[in-house]
Write the structure tokens for this entry.
Amino acid sequence: MSNHKTPQAITVAATFTIEPILSPLQYVLHEAGLELDVRFSPYNQVFQELLTPASLLASNAGGINLVLLRVEDFIRETTDRAPAEKLIQRTTGQLLDALGQYARRIDVPTILGVLTPSPGVAEGLRHDIKIANEELMAFARSLPGIALMSQEEIDLVSTDFRYDSLSDELAHIPYTEEHYASLALAIVRKVHALRVPSHKVLLLDCDNTLWRGVVG
């Protein structure tokens, strides 16, 4: 009988083209001492991945799942404001329901990133997306097994050169190489926090240096 084990993996689902993150993600995982494969679900199949019992996310036993959402991706082909607003509201409700079903069914630790809109989003829709993001994040915080990766955590490791409007238009690759690398770093920091127990320190005072007492 073979003792070969299937490598544990990070399985990634995103609403945009996420594959450019592969190289920096593999590098940072290796540097952090996290021996995890990286697997991608099909392009823009987040709903299917959350809801299907046989999806890559659902079958990632022992690994870490990663879901990256940009609400703007759901209105990518919608040019008029009123239909776009309705689509944002409807999609947000569907995402809340899908995340709830997923969390009840799956016991794999899952990192959820709800990303801010790009500069190309119409000004009139930015408020609607902000409200949608807040609803998604608030709900995610209430779900078991979901670790929210905040925009602040991403900003801590990001440069100013984030968006590439040309590659976004041509191939739905919204970010520069530098920002995909920044996302990789933020993701690995989150994975490390989930996979590696934090160190605990026991401090004893036996000579009245820190507290009034023989031992504190």
User: Anything to note?
Assistant: Strands lie at 9-14, 37-40, 64-69, 110-114, 146-149. The longest strand covers residues 9-14. DSSP finds seven helices and five strands in the chain. The radius of gyration is 20 Å.
